[in-house]
Amino acid sequence: MPQPAHPPAPPFIPAQRRPGDPLRRRQCDAAPERPGDRRKDGAAWTPVTAPAPPAGARSLLAQANACLDDARDASRATERYVFAHLAALRAATAVVLARSWRRRARRSGSVWLQLTEVAPELREWAAHFTAGSLRRAAAEAGSPGITPGEAELCLRHATEFVAVVDRGLSGAAR
To answer: Is the dihedral of CA 169, 171, 173, 174 positive or negative?
Structure first.
């Protein structure tokens, strides 16, 4: 039996472009129409800036930075751990306030639980600091079970978390 001279052509997929096909514009290529667009007669789309976070959120973030300073200045590991964890707690509270200030209903539960509800992208941070909440409470009660290495690690994590929150509240991460 004779073999065909050319192998069979692959099946055509409608979404596939062939060489020489004209480029088709899709709806998703254009910037979406949004209320508040400043587009006039084909002008380029200019995004509308997000509203500033409530003043209380910025105040909580300033308190978080002050707690970080206290943690850096602390001489004992337990104090360093407590201040670092409190800095993260204040930063989380700032996010919850900034993301839910228009809602009337008050949420119940810990700040870390509320954080996962209003900012799911921060759930890993919430889980991390939730795990350290009992250790912080024990340290505040005077338990000497915090090592200098644990305190330093908590300070590093809290510093990173506060920076993430600060970028998010200032709009740089949006």
So the answer is: positive
